[in-house]
Amino acid sequence: MKLRRVTLAAVAAFVFSSAATLSAVAADPCDTCWQRYNRCIEVGSDPGYCEYRVTQCLAAAGCPAPPF
Fold it and tell me: What does the alpha-carbon distance between residue 36 and residue 24 come to, in Å, rounded to a whole number?
């Protein structure tokens, strides 16, 4: 029974730390949009498609429009 509590506590701590880390990383929605744009370009997608997606993401997040 004691092992079960320790396991539950360890899992809860892991989930909490993961959630805290993700919320800290995704704190700025504008940066998240640009990170997605960079990944889109890196995988070789059509630049026009990536530009469209980042423009939509930035508009939805209330960020400034891209320079293109």
Answer: 17
Q: Can you tell me the distance from the alpha carbon of 67 to that of 36, in angstroms, rounded to the nearest whole number? A: 16
- Joined tokens for residue 43: 């995988």
| Burial of 66 per CB tally in 10 Å (0-12, 13-18, 19+) | middle
Which residues make Cβ contacts (< 8 Å) with residue 68, sequence separation at least 6? 51
Ranges in the chain, pLDDT < 70? 1-26
User: Which residue, 34, 37, 24, is CA-closest to 64?
Assistant: 34
